[in-house]
Design a protein that fits this description.
Strand content: 25-35%
Mean pLDDT: 86
Number of domains: 1
Helix content: 25-40%
Strand order of the largest sheet: 1-2-3-4-6-5
CATH class: Alpha Beta
Distance between the termini: 33 Å
Number of helices: 3
CATH architecture: 2-Layer Sandwich
Structural class: alpha+beta
Low-confidence stretches: 1-15
Length: 140
């Protein structure tokens, strides 16, 4: 497991923070991604229900990718922290000829219900699901 944090502006506390987390594409490691998601959302002062919604959405996105991940693949999770939003992009190498669930699927409906925005894309043999959650409450 590799963890790194990159900051483009040393003075920024929250702006322009990027956290990259790579774990084996195995259900046993999803707890690590859920915990990181909750920690970063808490840092942005998301409400408890918003944090739980985002944790569930990340878990669902990872489950979608695990279903089509190539043998020995890794899940790469990129968290982009801004002043009032958390963007989570989860990627995995996929088996040739596989597709992500359709936007009409139940899994996709879960993602769009729990986040502000959800986008899926494939680039060759890499699939990415990007989730954006904006804090609903006032800024602390």
């Amino acid at each position: 497991m590799r963890v790194s944090q990159l900051t483009t502006d040393d003075q920024a506390i929250v702006e322009d923070d990027i956290v990259l987390l790579t774990v084996p594409a195995d259900v046993g490691y999803l707890g690590v991604l859920r915990t990181a998601t909750a920690g970063l959302a808490a840092r942005l002062h998301f409400a408890l229900d918003e944090i739980e919604d985002l944790r569930i959405a990340v878990d669902e996105a990872c489950a979608m990718l695990l279903a089509i991940a190539a043998a020995g693949a890794e899940l790469e999770c990129r968290f982009a922290v801004s002043e009032d939003a958390l963007t989570v992009a989860v990627s995995a190498s996929t088996q040739p000829g596989t597709n992500l669930p359709a936007h009409a699927s139940f899994a996709w409906k879960v993602l769009t219900a729990l986040t502000t925005d959800a986008v899926a894309e494939t680039d060759g043999t890499v699939a990415t699901i990007r989730l954006v959650s904006r804090r609903q409450g006032p800024r602390p």
